[in-house]
Structures are given as C-alpha cells and as structure tokens.
Amino acid sequence: VDYEIQFRFAAEFSINQILGVGGFGIVFEATNTLDKWSYAVKRISVQAVLREETKALEEVQALAKLDHPNIVRYNSTWIEKPPLQWQSVRYEGSFIYIQMQVHDLKLYHISDKYFFQLCNYSLSRWLEENTTPNSRALSRMKSWFKQIVSAVAYIHKNNLIHRDLKPSNILFSDRDHLKLCDLGIATERRSENGEETTLARSNIGTPLYMSPEQRSNSKYGSKTDVFALGLILAELCVVMTTSQ
C-alpha cells in the first residue's frame, strides 16, 4: 500500500515505520527533520463534508489541550488536502494530522529487556510476556491501574470519551509509569449539572473491549470507558486475556 504523503508532512518529517493502521487512520513513527526528535504522527481521514471536517477539528483541538502525566502529550495538529491524484481516483476529503511525543531519551529496563524508544513498549506486550502469578504483584497492579483510571478520569473531566481503551493503547514511559495514548477516536461529551446530555452512537473501537451498548450501536456515554477499565483490571490481576 502506498502511504507516501506530500506537503507539510513530507517536508518536515521522515517516516521511520508504520506503528499501526486502523479504521480511522494510520500512525507513523516519524523523525522531525528540524529538531531530530521522533514522534508518532497519526493521520485521520475526513470525508469532504464541511460539518464532518469541522467536528473532527474541534475534537482534535480538544485533545491537544490535554496535559496529564499519564497521557501521551499531543504536540501539534494540522489539516491538509491529499495529493491531487488521490482526490480523483482514491479519496476525496482531507487529512488531519496529530503529532504526539512518544519517545523518551532515557534507557530503562523492563521485563529483562532494554528499550531506548521506550514508548513503543505497551501494557499489552507486558501482559503477554509476564504470564506467571508471581509477576502480577497486587500492589504493583493497583498502582498501574490507579494511573490508568486517573488518565481516564481526566479525559472525562475534560468532556471527552476515549472509546478505545485497551492494553495496547497504554504505554510505558518508565518501569512503573504508564501513559494512555491513541485518543484519535475520542469524542466530545456534553453535560449539565453532572449529567451527560449528549450521548455518542457509534460502534467504533475494539470489539473485545466495547461495552454492550457501544457494540450494539446504541447510545452511550463515558460509562463505556468504565466497562473497558473493568476488563483491563481483570487482565492485570488474572493471568488471562479478554478474549479468554
């Protein structure tokens, strides 16, 4: 698949690898040609409908304002049209780019492995590599889960719903410090007097971690994230996967 991109992204970044591809876009690991730092740059496709483009920009701008020790920091957001040849034969619309700082300049030791670009190491990978009860010390799991809950509570406080909470979207920035990432499909929620007044209605996300209402395309609110948190807690405390 051709992922070559023109304009600002091509001018300012050098692609190192593709970190992930999903229904809402693609995530590149790319080096900024000016500051030489490596970033994750997520490209989200937006159809050529002004209302959809405006809504997507509002949500991404809300994400860029988040500042929490357990959330990957968003550095920059911009929008641009795809190459002209794409518009005629492959795609009509725009691309929204979200630049995130995901790499630390420190060398850490986790699970008998060393990682220079540490934020490539996810909780999902840790769970796969640590399958004995002795590796799941309760005090440590509680500490990790508390960090995850703190990040989600902060997102909800800022009137956002993550909608895709899962271990692979939780990264390590050091041995016991977790960061929530991939808020690219987060959506705004509106509330009055503590009660949600606007509910999402879309079954996007990862099926294994969806709440029943999210999976069935019914209306749902921030509690859909709480459902996913429960599954993550179970995976932390019991040597099993959500699929099991």
**Pattern of helices and strands:** HEEEHEHEEEHHEEEEEEHH
Indicate the CATH architecture of the largest domain.
Orthogonal Bundle
Largest sheet properties? 5 strands, antiparallel
Q: Which CATH top level class of the largest domain fits?
A: Mainly Alpha
- Beta-strand percentage range: 25-35%
Shape: globular
Q: Name the assembly state.
A: single chain
Total domain units: 2
Task: Estimate percent helicity.
Answer: 25-40%
What is the H level of CATH, i.e. the homologous superfamily of the largest domain? Answer: Transferase(Phosphotransferase) domain 1
Class computed from helices, strands and strand pairing: alpha+beta
Strand order of the largest sheet: 1-2-3-5-4
- What is the overall number of helices? 7
CATH topology of the largest domain, by name, is Transferase(Phosphotransferase), domain 1
Which residues form runs of ≥5 with pLDDT under 50? 1-5, 104-118
How far is the N terminus from the C terminus? Answer: 33 Å
Mean pLDDT: 75
Number of strands: 13
CA gyration radius, whole angstroms: 18 Å
